[in-house]
């Protein structure tokens, strides 16, 4: 049973509510802003956010970690992650996975199958200048085939026609301004309507995966994009900021309304984890790897209270992926073994269990009244 009592007028004041035996307090204005759409949260029934790092082929580790989470919910029929997260964001291959799980609403099994099919595009080819790049035409074709296989229009927009759907975003970078750009399935008044109304799903996938020196830049609405990895390989802060914008919550209110934030990495690569064919960009990619963990550490320090309360979680393989490069298709079995070993660690297993408990509480289908 759910009900609410308001003290004050309709625009301000205090609202006391009961939802399934839980007593909650909230301001009327904030309550109204959080009672519309999927994933809406009132006090004590917060949002569930998922942030996915970039990492090339090592993105397979992300899928395996999410699979473990969903199997802990239902071993026989793991549910689609879009049913358990209100917002999924990512960059590079993490962005690609975010699109598959969020915008395309794939199950984790469907995502793993589709991801394996896409991996062939991470085979370097020699460009006209003698440098090695991944073939962006092959990548675009593979994304469109994936859409068709999933029963979707290959030219569909990233924009999601369903207001009730899990919200999805990817990070990209403006080539000329070196400015971080968010491409999203949902409207954001700060960004305006041009990219929102025009960006196709395959274009968003290309934009977030267009790493400098790896894929050619892509132009959308007369703006050229390169990979969001140049500064946002770990998009956890962007995920937090997007949630604040979507649900119109300041930092303090967002802290209160978040049920769980899950940040998943692709392992910590060593300095030998890049093929000689990519030597021109290896220095940049090594810096990116360092930035990824620095971002994770900085976020943990700033939101220590959420981690201590087990409302924020960071999962990434600490050992075993040191020598796996962005394009190293031969290491899939190693990625799987290293991730499996990481998931077997007692500390990891305990954190995963607490994470699932949080995921199952409130969130996407919960309403206050």
TrEMBL record:
UniProt feature coiled coil, ranges: none
UniProt-listed GO biological process terms: arachidonate metabolic process; glycerolipid metabolic process; lipid catabolic process
Domain PNPLA: 50-240
The keyword Lipid biosynthesis belongs to this UniProt entry's keyword annotation: no
InterPro entries recorded: Acyl_Trfase/lysoPLipase, PNPLA_dom, SesB_dom
SUPFAM superfamilies assigned: FabD/lysophospholipase-like
Motif extent (GXGXXG): 54-59
GO CC annotation: membrane
GO molecular function: calcium-independent phospholipase A2 activity
A Pfam family it matches: Ses_B
Listed name of the protein: PNPLA domain-containing protein
Phylogenetic placement of the source organism: Eukaryota, Fungi, Dikarya, Ascomycota, Pezizomycotina
